[in-house]
Amino acid sequence: MYLSLVLGFILITNIYEVSCQNGQDEQSMYWSLLQNIKNLANTDTERELAISNIEELKDRSLQLMDIANWHKFYNARSFASSLASRNVSQKCANQTGEFLVEIPLNFKAKWVQQMVDAAGKPGSGLLLGNMIWPGAFKECLGVRAEIYYNRSHSASTKPDDTFSGRHCLAKIPLKKPNPGMQFMFIGIQWGACFPDSCSADDVTQILNNVLDDIGTNITKGLQVWHTECNLDDRRLDTKATVVLVIAMLFVAVMLIGTFLDVVFVQMPMRARLSVETEGLTSHLVKDGDIISHINASKGVSENESSPLLGEKKQHAGPSVCVKVFLAFSVYTNAKKLLNTSQPKGTLTAIHGIRFISMTWVILGHCMVFGLGVVDNILEFGQELKRFTFQCIINGTVSVDTFFTLSGLLVAYLTFKEMKRVKKGLKLNWLMFYFHRFWRLTPPYMLLMMVYVPLMPYISSGPMWPQAGFELNQCEGTWWTNLLYINNIVKKNQMCMGWSWYLANDMQFYVLSPLILIPFYYSKFLGIMMSMLFLLTSLITTGIISRVDHIGVGLGVDVNNLQNSTNNPNTAFDAIYMVPWCRMGPYIIGIWTGYILYRTDCRIRMSRVTVIFGWAIATASALAVVYGLYDVNNGHPLAVDTAAFYNSVNRTVWGACVCWVVLACATGYGGYVNTLLSWKGIIPLSRLTYCAYLLHPIIMFYYYYSRETTFHLSDINLLFSFFSFLVASYGVSFIVSLAFEAPMMGLEKVFFKREKNS
Fold first, then answer.
1. Is 667 exposed, middle or buried (0-12, 13-18, 19+ CB in 10 A)?
2. Is the pLDDT of residue 55 over 70?
3. Could you write out the DSSP letters of every residue in 345-370?
């Protein structure tokens, strides 16, 4: 069936090359003359006769073109005249028809050759899934067509009509497409060059008319689902203009804040320190603004040991207005981000785990987000069977690492805060929630504000979506992201599809007091409540997997990607991104955080216990990552076994991560702790949140700005991965300085103001 579809589309792209019966006699004469010339050219004595035959051939060829192409000329005119009656704009129909006429009559014209040559053609690798034929994008844009109705015109005659080329990419699905998953489109993508008077709807209608008119079994059922046409004359719409203005305001505030910080804080402070060094203590600078800002100048930053609910009241400082500008200081915020000092009691190994997990996420997405532009999609299934690829196909547990760390830190820090205020219920729970919302939401929403309206304008190419990568530019769904319910409400139209993780994490955080408060007052009550949540999550996941016959992992049968009986969309929607199936690792993290709090990170274990713990954790982690090797090589699990695996594998992974944190925090980490606690990782760990938000956008930009397809191979993926890793963290540093670090500073400004009042 697949080959039939491909062959049918090849037939469509070459429809105008069919010769007519009227030219058969002349064609025989043509080849006879050609053979005669070949024979004569082999002898020197008859060269003059050969030349005369060549002249005759030239005349005959011109006659042959007129006779053989009249049928095509007539059909092109007839087809063009029918387009206007088929919901195609009149100008597009006329110019398309003129182009079709010019192919046989004026093929020597450069613009005709360009338009024909710019059309995509099937290449090699059809059996590997090479169904993307984008054509020559820039060659099409360079077309400047001149049409003359009078064939005997002079060189100075003004053309009767002119147009430029517009590249369009038509998508013909082989299975029902998901509008919200454009990068996972499965079908034929064909690029062609059309007159710039044609819109995407015109091109869709033209191609569908061609498919209908052919009327063969090969093309039966084929319809163009969507067409993208480049728009070089695009102007920024209102939303994009407003976003640019807001972005410029942010830049202005950052410049002002940096100027105030450097001139009125850093320089006087350095002068004061210089005076102190010289022993001239009588000349100390006593400016209150400088003293109040000295802690920020030293690079003091928030970390795992910082209280969740704010700090104690400090002495008066500069005005609120000045503090607001200082919160945007690039100089101070950069020092905070790059600071590697950690206070006593910090769980330093978490920094390394966080960064490594983020690199794993980028590695997996590096391959997934590029599937919409690869030319060997079917070969991809064979690659997934390799043992070394198991860490990629099962790399979805990298997200569960973040769930685990989130639960661990929330428990560890909240229990310490409860201890500080003496009673758990006296904790300011309103600020408990506000701090989390303010910590995550501003950079999240601000990045969405910049990404969604501006993404359509930052690049172009044959595969670049003119309307952006988000369905309807998130007009009806952005509020679900703001409320962190986008993984439950309108999830099939989710804005920034990778943000499902943020929704889950916030939902777990909202529910966490139901476990933390009982734990604080009674270990038994805490265990019972957490077990209730854990068992509910495990049982629910197992039941859904069993009822829906979901395969292990994401439900993808790598042994038969083309005709997989498992629906990955069902697995993703039903168990992958919903909170009731993902809370297991979070609960395990809460348990570990409670243990570290109660023991103050001082646990004595025997050598045998430590070795046994590391052995069990390592074996379990390897089983989760590599245990499906046989399954991916033609030995599927029974439905019940698959349901059990889907139910417990993520929780087991979370337990393995917790052992690493526990061992490192209590002095049993050895070289693992040395590696994970390396100070050079600390700044990268702080940038992980922004890197998670940004890295898919960078991948979209690279993959869909290409003018050619991407070939999946080890070397291509390796270099792409390192490029994405560096680019993601590099851009994250800038975004953090603009959207993340200032917001944490503003929280301190207004929170202290409230306490002072």
1. middle
2. no
3. T--THHHHHHHHHHHHHHHHHHHHTT
Q: Where are the beta strands (DSSP E) in 5-114?
A: none
Query: Of all helices (H) and strands (E), which one includes residue 520?
Result: helix 513-521
Phi-psi label, residue 263: left if phi above 0, alpha if psi -120 to 50, beta otherwise: alpha
Q: Quick check: 471 and 452 in contact, CB under 8 A?
A: no
| 144-147 and 161-173 beta bridge pairing | antiparallel
Cβ neighbours, 10 Å, residue 607: 8
Question: Which residues have C-beta within 8 Å of that of residue 226, sequence separation ≥ 6?
Answer: 170, 171, 177, 204
What global pTM score does this model have?
A: 0.84
Contact predicate 243/454, CB 8 Å: yes
Which tokens in the block code for residue 29? 């004469």
CB 601 within 8 Å of CB 345: yes
Distance, in Å, from the CA atom of 325 to the CA atom of 249, rounded to the nearest integer, reads: 12
| 3 state DSSP class of 678 | coil
**Tens digit of each residue's pLDDT (9 = 90 or more) over 645-689:** 999 999 999 999 999 999 999 999 999 999 999 999 999 999 999
Which two three-digit tokens encode residue 365? 């997405």
Sign of the CA dihedral running 674, 680, 686, 687: negative
Does residue 111 contact residue 146 with C-beta atoms inside 8 Å? Answer: yes
Long-range contacts of 172-179 (CB under 8 A, 24+ apart): 172/9, 172/222, 172/223, 172/224, 172/225, 173/225, 174/2, 174/5, 174/131, 177/225, 177/226, 178/492, 178/569, 179/471, 179/493
What is the distance between the alpha carbons of residues 310 and 307, in angstroms, rounded to a whole number? 6
The enclosing H or E element of 94 equals helix 90-105
Whether pLDDT at 754 is above 50: no
pLDDT at position 180 is 55
Compute the distance between CA of residue 68 and CA of residue 65 in angstroms, rounded to an integer: 5
Greatest Cα pair distance in the chain: 115
Strands 226-229 and 161-173: antiparallel
Amino acid at 523: K
The DSSP code for 603 is -
Please name the residue ranges forming H helices in 222-348. Answer: 238-261, 267-277, 288-297, 320-326, 330-338
Q: According to the 3-state scheme, what is the secondary structure of 114-160?
A: HHHHHCCCCCCCHHHCCCEECCCHHHHHCCEEEECCCCCCCCCCCCC
Contact (Cβ atoms closer than 8 angstroms) between residue 170 and residue 204: yes
- Tell me the C-alpha to C-alpha distance, in Å, between residue 397 and each of 358, 534, 613, 699: 11, 17, 20, 21
Q: What is the per-residue pLDDT across 585-637, written as a single tens digit (0 to 9) for each?
A: 999 999 999 999 999 999 999 999 999 999 999 999 999 999 999 988 888 88
Radius of gyration of the chain (CA): 33
